[in-house]
Design goal:
2 copies of one chain form a homodimer. Chain A is mainly alpha-helical. In chain A, 68% of the residues lie in helices and 6% in strands. Chain A has a single domain (4-14, 22-163), classed as Winged helix-like DNA-binding domain superfamily/Winged helix DNA-binding domain (Arc Repressor Mutant, subunit A), CATH 1.10.10. Chain A has 8 helices and 2 strands. In chain A, strands 1-2 form a two-stranded antiparallel sheet. In chain A, helix 2 runs parallel beside helix 7 (135-148) and helix 6 crosses helix 8. Chain A is globular. At the A-B interface, helix 1, helix 2, helix 3, helix 4 and helix 6 of A face helix 1, helix 2, helix 3, helix 4 and helix 6 of B. The structure holds a DNA duplex.
DNA sequence: ACTTGATATATAACTTGTTATGTAAATGCA
DNA sequence: TGCATTTACATAACAAGTTATATATCAAGT
């Protein structure tokens, strides 16, 4: 059976992007788990934002991440349960929260940069390297590339090259 | 606050694609509602697949759509509740279902093609027209384009041009 | 100071994606 | 024929996004 979503092209661009996104996220999460991280890929941007900017309010994170406020709140609840962040009250404006990485969170971020993020970025960059043409052409190439080798395997191979 | 997901580039490609996808889907659904359809954008591929190929099994749809089998099953339940499809048993192989558009479903698809899909395709094609460069460049341009004018407004304008 | 309105976050309900697993039917081999 | 395996779909539980709305605090005007 042919790939109808692909055939429909721009009409189903949303569905197409969504399925590629899910696949990337799942692969990245799997790679992370393989090297001992249990933070899902979707949480990386939160940690990275806090790493870059220090204390941020929920509203700041909404802007930094481009997702809805309840989405951010849920991510924060999850990360706080894992002990990676601390959520305090902003005493200047007590409606706001001040979210910061915990000391464990900072450790995790440092390890992630070294053991996960760097390899993921290399693998994704590799996957997308040399792509050109229309958006749909590039999406075709990405899906074909992932069919050939999943992102987690790509990240693993790069890592081995580098360590070996 | 800057857009951290954008800044992180390929590292967060999954998150980036996901948020663009959600935005496109929401806009398309809103446009559809505006012209009297209450089928969410994510269901269009299912309807289009059945329109193109006639009776399909669940497994066929899994391949055609590129989503998981339980995802397909849930979509079908929803579309059957709305009366747009009929799900029968395949008598040759009674493990399989044979999914077809109902007569109402066929009507809806014909109306959708005329009143929704055509305009959505035009609007998305317009949004992506003239894009070039790396994937990240193109994604930047798409998000900038959507900031300027949402996809549902784009579709509406095109439609007005055409009818006016 | 009080009241009114705006802003920041939380919560509830829903959607739609996933994985893991259960069940019924078909297939294949002894 | 009968049993084991495989296949097709259903179901349950979870994840992460959404909108709509509730609550708490701040800001402003009288």
């Amino acid at each position: 059976m042919e790939d109808v979503v692909r055939q429909l092209g721009y009409l189903c661009l949303g569905s197409r992007l969504k399925r590629i996104a899910e696949r990337l996220q799942a692969d990245v999460t799997r790679f992370g788990e393989g090297v001992g991280f249990d933070v899902p890929a979707g949480q990386y941007p939160v940690l990275a934002a806090l790493d870059r900017h220090g204390a941020l309010s929920v509203g700041d994170l909404v802007q930094a991440l481009g997702v809805s406020q309840p989405g951010v709140t849920r991510s924060l609840t999850l990360l706080a349960e894992k002990g990676l962040i601390e959520i305090e009250r902003n005493e200047r404006d007590r409606r706001q929260k001040a979210v910061v990485l915990s000391s464990e969170g900072r450790n995790i971020v440092e390890r992630s940069k070294r053991d996960v993020w760097r390899h993921v970025e290399t693998a994704v960059t590799g996957l997308c390297a040399g792509l050109s043409g229309s958006l749909l052409d590039q999406l075709d190439a990405i899906e074909a590339g992932l069919d050939e080798m999943s992102l987690d395997r790509r990240a693993l191979e790069k890592r081995e090259c580098q360590c070996g």
